[in-house]
Write a structure and sequence with these properties.
The structure is a homodimer. By secondary structure, chain A is α/β, with parallel strands linked by helices. Chain A folds into two domains: 12-149 and 301-329, Quinone Oxidoreductase, Chain A, domain 1, CATH 3.90.180.10; 153-278, Rossmann fold. The first copy, chain A, is 25% helix and 31% strand. Chain A has ten helices and 20 strands. The first copy, chain A, has helices at residues 50-56, 99-102, 144-148, 150-162, 178-188, 201-209, 236-245, 267-271, 284-292, 311-319; strands spanning 12-19, 22-30, 38-48, 64-65, 69-76, 86-89, 92-93, 113-115, 119-120, 127-131, 135-137, 171-174, 195-198, 213-216, 226-231, 246-254, 262-264, 275-278, 302-307, 325-329. In chain A, strands 3, 5, 6, 10, 11, 19 and 20 form a seven-stranded mixed sheet that branches. In chain A, strand 12 (171-174), helix 5 (178-188) and strand 13 (195-198) form a beta-alpha-beta unit. In chain A, helix 4 crosses helix 5 and helix 4 packs across helix 9 (284-292). The interface between A and B is large, with 38 and 38 residues.
């Protein structure tokens, strides 16, 4: 193993920092110093996720550099196989010691930090550090743009790890945003009837072009006849509609995390004996494979790419109903 | 098959009727007339359930004779094996035709009526009618008092039909009321560590006497380390505490149905990938067996028995924090 060091490595960098409910561009943020077992990574591109927008509203009370979806290049590492390589990285940094880690649930590590979400600076910066064990080396088959989708796609693929999909099921995905457009593709691999429900005609069209059935939310009537409903709306209205659509003894997968508590009548869950399953991060290798093989296609999903300097504008654009995925380019 | 008819059968009866948010004793309510396939049953005793108290607050918007927990005697039937027998009855009256019925989920029949809860007069009356197929004949081993517990015990036993209990799990039951005191006994058969959490020392003592671990709710700290948490509180605070107690990837069983929507932060369910399962009615034969064998012991669970005429007083008493199960005696 050879320690790799970049000559003339900068000490200061540009970074977009969450603080007091705002994300502000800081031009002289210190370049992070990798701890033992960590690598320093030059960020190439990063994606803006609904979670980033929720953090702006107070979710997780996170302060620090935002961003957790990225592709980068390793610039300092003690691990020869990683040197100079293009990588993506698992966002949960774990202790390896607690009851969750020792029972194989390290994504739920009691002592974890999470890139750009909890206790650890993220990817809206020129550089970031992550444990070397978190990194996945990419080959040339994946473009940078595809690579930024590895993290959200892994989250979408988590659904089929939690529930085994029946070909005969009636399935709906609620929300035509970033995650919904990935989730419906993931589910459509095993079930041709998947319906994507959304509010935006041009976003639904993206799924429609991929051969997925789509419907405007206003045209959906809750008849409690869906076997599986996946809520990717990022809105309190998602669960309410899911409860109306799911059949007795059916399953709701809840992907939506929102900063504010929501008012919800959960009695129908009891009466109909519904199973509600929270779903978060997934496995990167599965997502890399699904993107490399072309099984999941990101065409039409990137609305715009902004340079990091224009993060304010990028966030505003990402929050607009019309945008799908917004990327940031870190290097000039 | 011989049609049984009782000579001098009354045309009018006493019945306690939900109407406009009140339960009122009516002295000249018509004795129900059994439809084809139904039996007429003389109610001996009935139990007051948390659901009855919620109906008073508007739950299910039900109007009609209340009550769904009962033991009675068949007085008119076309089924010889039921004539004159002491029975309990499944509360869901089903069509046998819909998608739910044909897929073996008849408790979720799309066209069901539910005794004293939805579209069908209930057990707080001198007589009721139910489909003959819903009835379970009792032998002498069960007292009337035990028999009234068949319906709520079946609901408690439903938990172990929905989740297979591991001996090593850490399990908590929230709520020391009627249902919680049954649920903790059900779970303790397979898991000695079951903890019953409640607000009332003397109710917890009932479980303690049966060898179950108990704790006052104020002494419980949510550490997200329980494998299974069962919410039987009948209060919005139950789910909130359950979310704090359940471990990542753990399970919450939700038994609480309340009339009002509740404000709840469901993000921890997503972050911790918790499985929340709604749970309702269960199988009567299992409950009859568990009571007959003495596996489930109702001693200490009946707070008081009132005559039907004193239903107002009985409901008030049932709503008091100190009462456990309150019974009504129908026949003078």
């Amino acid at each position: 193993m050879s320690a790799k060091s970049v000559s003339g490595e900068a000490k200061r960098m540009k970074a977009a920092v969450f603080r007091e409910g705002k994300l502000k561009l800081v031009r002289d943020y210190p370049v992070p110093v990798p701890a033992k077992g960590e690598a320093l990574i030059k960020v190439l591109q990063a994606g803006i996720c609904a979670t980033d927008l929720e953090i702006l509203k107070g979710y997780m009370k996170f302060e620090g550099v935002g961003g957790h979806e990225f592709v980068g290049q390793v610039v300092r590492t003690s691990e020869a196989s990683l040197a100079d390589r293009r990588v993506v990285g698992q966002i949960n940094c774990v202790c390896g010691q607690c009851d969750m880690c020792s029972s194989g649930l390290s994504n739920h590590c009691r002592n974890r930090t999470v890139l750009g979400i909890a206790g650890r600076d993220g990817a809206f910066a020129e550089y970031l550090v992550l444990p070397q064990d978190n990194l996945h080396v990419l080959d040339e088959k994946l473009t940078d743009e595809q690579a930024v989708f590895v993290e959200p796609l892994a989250a979408a693929l988590q659904i089929v790890k939690q529930v085994s999909i029946d070909k005969r099921w009636k399935i709906a995905v609620l929300g035509d945003g970033r995650l919904g457009l990935l989730a419906c593709q993931v589910l459509a691999r095993d079930n041709r009837s998947v319906l994507l429900v959304g509010k935006h005609r041009h976003k639904l069209l993206v799924a429609d072009k991929k051969g997925i059935r789509v419907s405007l939310v206003d045209e959906v009537v809750g008849r409690n006849d869906y076997d599986l409903v996946v809520d990717c709306t990022g809105s309190p209205t998602g669960l309410k509609l899911a409860v109306k659509m799911v059949r007795p003894r059916g399953t709701i997968i809840l992907k939506t995390t929102i900063a504010a508590p929501v008012e919800c009548d959960l009695s129908p869950l009891v009466i109909n004996e519904v199973r509600l399953i929270g779903s978060r991060c997934g496995t990167f290798s599965d997502a890399i494979e699904a993107l490399s093989s072309g099984e999941i296609d990101i065409s039409g999903l990137i609305s715009r790419t902004f340079p990091l300097e224009r993060i304010d504008e990028a966030l505003k654009f990402a929050a607009e109903p019309d945008s799908i995925k917004v990327l940031l380019r870190m290097q000039a």
